[in-house]
Amino acid sequence: MTEPDSSRDGGHQVPPGVAHPRAIRTFVRRAGRTTTGQARAFERLAPRFVLPYTAQPLDFAAAFGRTAPTVLEIGFGMGEATAHIAALMPGTNFLCCEVHEPGVGALLKRIGEQGLENIRILQHDAVEVLATMIPPASLAGVHIFFPDPWHKLRHTKRRLVQPPLVAQLASRLAPGGYLHCATDWEPYAQQILQVLSAEPQLANSAPGFAPKPHYRPLTKFENRGIKLGHGVWDVVFHKLPPHP
């Protein structure tokens, strides 16, 4: 989970066959400075917790050193919520995509400080990761927290959560697996709800927007927003079993 504008898109080319618009990726390049602590964590922990991108299916059991339900997170920002959720759910593996180097360093620092063993990081565009590294029906869940809302009307086509990607995410979920999106921008929340509702592989877990699941913590940004009267909307859908 991240603060808004954390799941951003920008430099990788989407390979042929990826069922997602070529103009849309999961990040934009952002300026940022890696702190000394983040750099030290990267040097010490990246060899163990950062996986190389390879255009072939990932063996989850080999990557995590165990067999366990695996959740894919797209864009974790500085990793505050990711670390919180991983600590809360030690029996679940978390495969986390983020290209922003200070964010990767920050999450590695949290991994070291909290002694977390159930996180692996891919510092690569999640659209390519999804297309080439995630086997069909292999995920227990997907988290997309506070993706770039692209507020301006002429930019809404750049939003991440659109039908081609959602169809591909659904194909990677095991039956009963979940897709959880959260945003603080109501027009985007409405779009997410509409797009997920139209995906035949998925069913809504609630009549509309979902109550905030217990595992998603309130970030500092979100707490500030709540005090100012801003809302946050959660959308949680589940993968339907295959037709007989």
UniProtKB/TrEMBL annotation:
<protein>
    <recommendedName>
        <fullName>tRNA (guanine-N(7)-)-methyltransferase</fullName>
        <ecNumber>2.1.1.33</ecNumber>
    </recommendedName>
</protein>
<keyword id="KW-0489">Methyltransferase</keyword>
<comment type="pathway">
    <text>tRNA modification; N(7)-methylguanine-tRNA biosynthesis.</text>
</comment>
<dbReference type="InterPro" id="IPR055361">
    <property type="entry name" value="tRNA_methyltr_TrmB_bact"/>
</dbReference>
<comment type="function">
    <text>Catalyzes the formation of N(7)-methylguanine at position 46 (m7G46) in tRNA.</text>
</comment>
<comment type="similarity">
    <text>Belongs to the class I-like SAM-binding methyltransferase superfamily. TrmB family.</text>
</comment>
<keyword id="KW-0949">S-adenosyl-L-methionine</keyword>
<feature type="binding site">
    <location>
        <position position="98"/>
    </location>
    <ligand>
        <name>S-adenosyl-L-methionine</name>
    </ligand>
</feature>
<dbReference type="GO" id="GO:0008176">
    <property type="term" value="F:tRNA (guanine(46)-N7)-methyltransferase activity"/>
</dbReference>
<keyword id="KW-0819">tRNA processing</keyword>
<feature type="binding site">
    <location>
        <position position="148"/>
    </location>
    <ligand>
        <name>S-adenosyl-L-methionine</name>
    </ligand>
</feature>
<feature type="region of interest" description="Disordered">
    <location>
        <begin position="1"/>
        <end position="21"/>
    </location>
</feature>
<feature type="binding site">
    <location>
        <position position="125"/>
    </location>
    <ligand>
        <name>S-adenosyl-L-methionine</name>
    </ligand>
</feature>
<keyword id="KW-0808">Transferase</keyword>
<feature type="binding site">
    <location>
        <position position="152"/>
    </location>
    <ligand>
        <name>substrate</name>
    </ligand>
</feature>
<dbReference type="InterPro" id="IPR003358">
    <property type="entry name" value="tRNA_(Gua-N-7)_MeTrfase_Trmb"/>
</dbReference>
<feature type="binding site">
    <location>
        <begin position="219"/>
        <end position="222"/>
    </location>
    <ligand>
        <name>substrate</name>
    </ligand>
</feature>
<feature type="binding site">
    <location>
        <position position="73"/>
    </location>
    <ligand>
        <name>S-adenosyl-L-methionine</name>
    </ligand>
</feature>
<feature type="binding site">
    <location>
        <position position="184"/>
    </location>
    <ligand>
        <name>substrate</name>
    </ligand>
</feature>
<feature type="compositionally biased region" description="Basic and acidic residues">
    <location>
        <begin position="1"/>
        <end position="11"/>
    </location>
</feature>
<dbReference type="Pfam" id="PF02390">
    <property type="entry name" value="Methyltransf_4"/>
</dbReference>
<dbReference type="InterPro" id="IPR029063">
    <property type="entry name" value="SAM-dependent_MTases_sf"/>
</dbReference>
